[in-house]
Amino acid sequence: MIWEVFRQEAPGKYHTHCGNVHAPDREMALLFAQVQHGRRKPTNSLWVVPKEEIGEVDAEEAEFGGTTDKSYRWVSAYNVDVDFAAEIAESDREQREAERGES
């Protein structure tokens, strides 16, 4: 049975797919995942999931466009007075950092 492995580098970070292992059950999959994917890089936790339990929706099956536009949350999306130039610059900086994944 094939198990997909997801690794979390540090507490609070997202789990990311790092590979798979072949194992007969969950306990062996966790053990193999620790050996193969958890010991060389910093690892906070591992998830193992049976490959057949992972579902997928791709762009041909559903439309994703437009659902994630949240530009209304940023000051730069609106016409404002020049008196707020410093606040607009700060908002733009925050937006660029958020898009790059910085906090």
Strand content: 15-25%
Class inferred from helices and paired strands: alpha+beta
The CATH topology of the largest domain, please? Ubiquitin-like (UB roll)
Number of helices: 2
- Average pLDDT, rounded to a whole number, is 84
The proportion of residues forming helix, as a percent range, comes to 25-40%
CATH architecture of the largest domain: Roll
CATH class of the largest domain: Alpha Beta
What's the order of the H and E elements?
EEHEH
Number of domains: 2
Relevant CATH superfamily of the largest domain: Phenylacetic acid degradation B
Uncertain segments: none
**Quick one: biggest sheet?**
3 strands, antiparallel
Gist?
This is 1,2-phenylacetyl-CoA epoxidase subunit PaaB. With 103 residues, the chain is an alpha+beta fold.
Defining traits:
alpha+beta; 2 domains; 3-stranded antiparallel beta sheet
Describe the structure.
The protein has 103 residues and is an alpha+beta fold. The protein has 2 domains: 2-53, Phenylacetic acid degradation B (Ubiquitin-like (UB roll), Roll), CATH 3.10.20; 56-103, no CATH class. The chain has 2 helices and 3 strands; from the N terminus they run ββαβα. A 3-stranded antiparallel β-sheet has the order 2-1-3. Strand 1 and strand 2 (15-22) form a beta hairpin. The longest helix has 16 residues, at 85-100. The chain is elongated, with a radius of gyration of 21 Å. The two termini are 39 Å apart. The mean pLDDT is 84. One of its GO terms (molecular function) is phenylacetyl-CoA 1,2-epoxidase activity. It comes from Halocatena marina. This is 1,2-phenylacetyl-CoA epoxidase subunit PaaB. Its EC number is 1.14.13.149.
